Amino acid sequence: MTSKKNFKKKMKRYHKNHEDHKEMSPRAKKAAAGAASALLGVGIMTGANTHVVKAAGYREDEIVEVESANVLSSEKTKVRISVQQRTNSTEDQNGEVISDESTETSNDVVTDTSTETASTNPESVATNDTTVDTTSTEGTSQLETQSTETTTEQVSATGDTSNEKTPKEETKTPTYDDAKNEVENINNTNNGKLDEAIENAKGEGVEVDVANGEDITTNVSGIKDAEGKLEEHIQKQLDKINKALEQYRTELEKYNKESAEYEIKLAEYNQKKADYIEELKKYGLWDENNVDIDKVSQDLILDPNESSKVTVVYKGDNVTVGTGNKTIGTNPDTQVVLDQFYKINKETLGEFLRLEYTGFQNSKYGNVDIGKILVSFSGWKPNYERDKYDPSGIYFNNKLTDGFWYVHSDGVTVDITLYDKKDNPIDLKDGTAYITAGSLNSEGTGSKYIEKAEIINDKEHNEYGGSGLALPESTVKVHEGAGIYGGDVLYSEKNNEVLVIYGDVNDNTIRKQTQAAINVWGDTETNRAIINKYINWDNSNDNKKAIFGAGLFKVHGKKIKIRFSTGIGSAWATYSTSIPKMTLDAVHPGKAPERPTLKIEVEKKQIVLNKNSSVHIHYVDVYNDIQNGVTSGFDHVSLGHGTELGEHVQHIEYLAIGDKYQNTLWDWASAGYVLAEMYVPEALRGTIKDDPQHHYVYLTHNTETEHRHMDVNQVIHYNYEDGTTAHEDYNGKTLHFVQTGTKDLVTGEITWDGEWTPVQSFEMVKSPEIENYVPDRLEVGPYNIIVTDDDYGKNIVKEDWVVYKAQIKETSRDKVVTQVIHYVYEDGSTAKPDHVSVNLVFTQTGVKNMVTGEEIWDGEWTKTQTFVTVVSPVIEGYTADRLEVGPYDITVTNDNYGNNLDKEDTVVYRPNTTTPDPDPDPTPDPDPTPTPDPEPEPTPDPLPEEDEYPHQPEFDEEDETVTPHVSTEPGKENKGTGTAKVAPVKATTVSDEAQTPETVSTTEGISDESTEVAEKSQNEETLPETGDKKAEAAGVLGALAATMGITGLGASRRRKASAKVNRKDKKNGK
């Protein structure tokens, strides 16, 4: 059984193994495609098992001989390779060395006369002696001559290594232990040949007596010569052994002849038994503790290549025929297509579907051919954990061994009943039939993804039943079933899914998945061994790996009942009966003939490396000594001055006494140093002596000129009084200042002792004009800027604020007061046109906020003005109830500004009661002599107003036109038919010349005609816009009133003009 996520890989192996039933493994039905290449890769890894030794970074590190234990074999060999590698090498992300040049194999220590990289660049000396060149980088000595050690295990039994990848070689700083290891490897290689010959001789029954000969001593440079001497001695010993073996084999020939028949029979028996055991191990049937191989047999065979046919013989009420198919695998030649689908609509505990498979040709139980097989499905419990959008149900096809795929259920219980050709049920005997449950993937206890297979038993265990068998090497164990009749359950409590590789199988994916498994299982030696052996167990044709996730049911009875389940609600389940050979029929041949004996004496020798010694090149910083006056005479063989740069010491420690060395000095210039004094030649080359040698190179600090920069900015903010922005900021040009200093190239410390750029300036900036606002500063700056050391590092900004306040202007307002006198008869009809006096205009000054429009009226009003006395006109035959009207003194204040101060009077005329004179032509009274008008005082020209006089709707609304009534009484005089409309006159529009009033006589003899003419003239001058000719007469009376009040009006205008002059003076600061 497998989940949907790995079924594609398993199907390729499934079809490959179906080609030969006898060789089919329990993992074949769900084996992964591409497994052959994966197995070949694993074979190369476990066969060659090459390990590249990582280069040590410091002199304390040593090359460690690496022995790789083959999981399947205890054999191991060691190979020592010395290479000349003059390349630049780096480590890749996997720790492997990547080299940009090819390497040469050599058995010699190589002389390198490369040029030193120190600042003085002294000439390198080449000699005929064998020398070694070291290069130190950041505290470690490095050889351009490098050695790489590779240990390998025995190549796989096939011997075919043509597909092996050449292992990447990794450079390493050599040590004396490297030389010791090289000598040891030479000893092991040569003596290994001798040991192999000895073991081969022993293997043939020969007794070998080994003695130790005299050692061969050498230094590092003489290892090659010593190796030749050892090889010569070993060859002599091998010849001795071979000669003795020739005699032994003659005696052995007789033995072989006598025992040939025995060996053939024994080999035949052992091979059959070994093959059988190996086959059983693949399925977990071989257990040294409780499984007897001679008692296990498999008589049940379900041939996967059958051309069978399926028929649905029963379906429940909850089952309907569906459409669609499940395709397993992507290769058209190997994929499985489950092309029949039945939908299950809801939970059904009982049987809901029964299939009948017929047409079997090669399937059988023992000697009984199978005619048909009934498969019944039950126990459907919906589970929508996976494949949520797929329909619920079961997919299958005509081939029984292709199994079925269930979707959206915790699991499915399957009843399998076998029938012979005569339609009789087949009863499986105990111990003769087995069902393999392979590829039981699991993500471990606590996960929903655990594939399980449970054997179901009947109540009495008579009709059907079985038990689970745990296989060695498998993570699948036997667990107790949950129900009353539930049998054993096979599943893995351990996460074996983490060892499965999906997709391409290569070194990278194997390494990645191996690490993932270690992360889950824990990094222990045991876990690593298991993981390395079984990695990709579910994607390989290696049966030993497939057993890692397999279990077995031993079944009996008239049917087989198994429940397949998983917590994710969807899986593919198959039936497999592949078991090793059915029976083992062989007889042991008995006692073997005795083997002949032989004793051989041999002598072993080995190479012994001279004692190790060393050379150390030290680098000393004498900067402080030089600053204190010590400039020469430094000791080059012991430390007498300065501070040693311990991290850059070069250690030549891998050589033996008598070896030549050559050194490449550390590149001190790259660290900011220069030579303080010339070094000794031994720092470059020399001979290794008995005691360690020390040489000192003295250095001082190099310097260079540095510059640092400081920028100073200017910003001016323009805000209103409430803090909001009045105008965008002004940003002045940036002033750049520079200072020079001296940098110590070793410490990086900079001494800033130079002068800063001289003083620079920000120019004067005028504040922008904003309508109706006044700035508190008309200009900002200029500023002189000086930068000092104390300022460096600070964010210096010359920042100013200009605040704008609202502009305050003077203003004024007028109050116009009017006077009108109505002349009417007793019945209310008009007797004479109304008298309208010249308007009195009162003015007050104040101040106005030009932003808010707010006005404050705190100035003095125009002084009191007067409407003069108006004499009532004479109407013949009538007497006025008031001979004159007025005078009225008018005063305006803030308190009565809003009140109606206009004067309105009515004079009523009544008929005279005396009898008229019968004289038809009375002599008229002479006109009175008019009083001459007084000379008006000269009025100064009014000052121009800054603003138009404000609109006063309360006065405008009071202006109205009065239409007089037409008299209907006979004899009444009706010379005036209307009242003129007189608009208020504002102070800013009154003309002194046009409005100069004249004095009117109070004599009663004023004629009606003269009054009307005056009124008409006045009305035409003041109201040209009305166009009402009927109201012209009213203007005459107004003109008379204006003439009589001219004195008061002239004074008012003079006061108003004077007030304006005073306000103007205040505004201008006078």
TrEMBL record:
Residues 189-283 form the Antigen I/II N-terminal domain. The keyword Transmembrane applies. The chain crosses the membrane at residues 1033-1051. SUPFAM superfamilies: V-region of surface antigen I/II (SA I/II, PAC). Residues 127-158 have a biased composition (Low complexity). Keywords: Cell wall, Coiled coil, Membrane, Peptidoglycan-anchor, Secreted, Signal, Transmembrane, Transmembrane helix. The keyword Coiled coil applies. Signal peptide: none annotated. Residues 231-279 form a coiled coil. Residues 17-26, 162-183 have a biased composition (Basic and acidic residues). Residues 934-948 have a biased composition (Acidic residues). Residues 1-31, 80-192, 892-1031, 1047-1070 are annotated as: Disordered. Residues 82-92, 104-126, 988-1005 have a biased composition (Polar residues). Residues 1-16, 1052-1070 have a biased composition (Basic residues). This is LPXTG cell wall anchor domain-containing protein. It comes from Lactobacillus amylovorus. The lineage of its organism: Bacteria, Bacillati, Bacillota, Bacilli, Lactobacillales.
